[in-house]
Amino acid sequence: MLLNSRIIVGICGGIASYKAVELVSQLQQAGALVDVIMTEHAGDFVSPLTFATMSHRRVYSDLWEPSGEAAELHIALAREADLLAVVPATANTIAKLAGGAADNMLTAVALATRAPLLLAPAMYKDMYTHPATQANLNLLRERGAYIVEPEVGRLASGDVGPGRLPDTASLLGAIRLVLGRSGDLAGRRVIITAGGTHEPIDPVRYIGNRSSGKMGYSLAIEARDRGAHVLLISGPVALPAPYGIEVQRVETAVQMRDAVYSSITDADVLIMSAAVADFRPAEPAAQKIKKVSGQARGQSETDAFSLHLVQNPDILKDLAEPLQESHNRNEQPRRRLIRVGFAAETEDIIANARHKLAAKQLDLLVANDVTRSDSGFATDTNKVLIFHADGAVEDLPVMAKSDVAAAIWDRVVPFLGTM
């Protein structure tokens, strides 16, 4: 996504400009070619040398330098850019961009380029909410600019309100989202489940599993970066919501089933990467279950506590049954939904995966051995086998979960071409 992308980062004269240093550094580390353009007063907050060090490239600022080289370069920069991101965008520069001014290097490049424009406003709260600033942002939005909304929080002035520049992770997410708007999932709606489920025993205890949600979140981010509208149905995890992704949080398997069923009507793809609990307590206690010693009951201290479990719904299998019934009755099938399942196994991976693939009538099934140290729960890597409905099996090497996510989407995309 970012590798070899040519990104111009425009730095305006505001206190939030120091936050752009990390953004430029991370873009460069991701393989992007980053050209930084600073407005006249941006250097009062962060020196050009700092950005040159982070980008490993020359920094531009003066459109009117005596050699005339900058006047020529601004056209080349504009023509070669894949994205122009103004971070932070001050009220003054936003007004200039809305008015079509070209009185400095940044605004001249902005007027000359046909690359997407991303703006991350950061300023005092009353400047941001002023009707003039809002009108300028709305005008730029109508022209196709992508606006990264500022956060509400404590500002440099000490006041609290809207105007804080979002963190680097959000800015990177926004950049990736804009770059991916014309990707191979553009216009598609995908649903991804992630994490485990918690099945309550009483108000303070539950049955759960070790799923961290990392694989599902990686799948959601990759889909966003390819242009999809993503609904991420997430069980309880310790991961932040990825930028630009709709997240619906659930706790139990039944809640996850209901969330999936209520959202698949207009979906193109469903990937069930969540580790949904197979069983749940039949009757969760309304109050905390107290430990009572065996001696208090006139019994031995070794008395066991019994918990009656019932089976949870199998979401993918239940989805397959109506499809099979329609086929048997020769009815017109409903909208085609590409369905991908996951199988976290500890033994007999191939046999178990083939059985699940057939029983749930899946397009693909991704299986892994969770006892491995490099592909178990909470790891950043995964070692998977991809099973196809036609019997083919792919054995992928150990990869980062982000790379596994890309590999899975590479195999899903061809299915969409047949829809």
TrEMBL record:
One of its GO terms (cellular component) is phosphopantothenoylcysteine decarboxylase complex. Residues 6-151 form the Flavoprotein domain. This is Coenzyme A biosynthesis bifunctional protein CoaBC. It comes from Ktedonosporobacter rubrisoli. Binds 1 FMN per subunit. The keyword Transferase does not apply. Catalyzes two steps in the biosynthesis of coenzyme A. In the first step cysteine is conjugated to 4'-phosphopantothenate to form 4-phosphopantothenoylcysteine, in the latter compound is decarboxylated to form 4'-phosphopantotheine. GO terms for molecular function: FMN binding; metal ion binding; phosphopantothenate--cysteine ligase activity; phosphopantothenoylcysteine decarboxylase activity. Its EC number is 4.1.1.36, 6.3.2.5. The lineage of its organism: Bacteria, Bacillati, Chloroflexota, Ktedonobacteria, Ktedonobacterales. Residues 1-189 are annotated as: Phosphopantothenoylcysteine decarboxylase. Residues 185-413 form the DNA/pantothenate metabolism flavoprotein C-terminal domain. NCBIfam families: coaBC_dfp (TIGR00521). It catalyses: N-[(R)-4-phosphopantothenoyl]-L-cysteine + H(+) = (R)-4'-phosphopantetheine + CO2; (R)-4'-phosphopantothenate + L-cysteine + CTP = N-[(R)-4-phosphopantothenoyl]-L-cysteine + CMP + diphosphate + H(+). Keywords: Decarboxylase, Flavoprotein, FMN, Ligase, Lyase, Magnesium, Metal-binding, Multifunctional enzyme.
